[in-house]
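During the no-cost extension, the postdoctoral fellow (Dr. R.K.) reprocessed legacy sequence entries with the updated structure-token encoder. One reprocessed record is reproduced below for audit purposes.
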Amino acid sequence: MNELALKYGCNPNQKPSRIFMEDGADLPVTVLNGRPGYINFMDALNGWQLVKELKAATGLPAATSFKHVSPAGAAVGRPLTETLAKIYWLEDLGVDYRTISPLACAYARARGADRMSSFGDFISLSDVCDKDTALLIEHEVSDGVIAPGYTDEALEILKRKKKGNYNIIQIDENYVPAQIEHKQVFGVTFEQGRNELKVDDEFLSNIVTKNKDLPEEAKIDMAVALITLKYTQSNSVCYVKDGQAIGIGAGQQSRIHCTRLAGSKADNWFLRQSERVLNLPFVEGIGRADRDNAIDNYIGEDFMDVLADGKWERLFTEKPPVFTAEEKRAVLDQVSGVTLGSDAFFPFRDNVDRAHRSGASYIVQPGGSIRDDAVIEACDEYGIVMVFTGLRLFHH
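Re-encoded structure tokens follow.
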């Protein structure tokens, strides 16, 4: 099939809408179920590129959770811990985190990094979707999924979602796009070469700080950060821990605001694992989305939205104590081993100062600022390992 008509474009008033191949070739995608829209396909095709490149860079199955043409989460298939299984609500689903497939682990991590942002996501999977992964997807609010294939069991499970209207797309994993890309803005056609990225030891070899101890796990996290950034609306930064993005900041005009936004998401990811949050006394029967919202408020500055009299009773069996700023800082002061990636150079050291507060031990960025020396000096003060890649990853 050379083209596919869509219901409408980005908005209902934008008609007609379609996807098609200008060269007359067949589309590399097949819709197995549902009726994906314009934004669905934008998320699906960007997400597929992300997970395909992650798999190539790490050798591990990969998943991403996309919302509005930027990833809310991305991860490779590393085993889950008991704590992560709890904060990702796997216990609610009766899923044994110790036995699920690596691909299911990747999706649980990608979805769980920022659950509020992932609500209503479009999922991309690097490998054939298996039953374990489908069972996780079945219970999440999601618009659709793209993968190179589906087992019969997985397809049967996914077709039950959204009263049989869940969007399921299969992509030809051998499809290679042309090296020259085109897009139109206001009737003007733009043309550029694709931004190719191969993350390997050589690409990460330019360590510019005094501390040059870069373990293999940190290299994997750098790959996750860089490839995630490649498909995140710029300016963008990405915090990564143990093979998964834990804080993504996208589309900010100021890089420090991006670093702060992503850092606050990373902080929340760590705070959700604290005993204070794990032991919140939720009332029986409350949904996962409501719990996610409640936890986000409880951790943040708007905690009285869930702790005020007349409000906490709807969520908790007893009123939880306030999670004070001092208590939260004590939790975060124990954090380390986080990797921070940036799609362009840091113009000031304030980005490093903020990253340090979220446990950054490793930073990867293009370099090239006139203030590189000040940024390197800041890293040396904190003992952070920083790599310059020389390659910018803007995405628009």
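The chain has a mean pLDDT of 95. The radius of gyration is 21 Å. The remaining legacy entries will be reprocessed before the final report is submitted.
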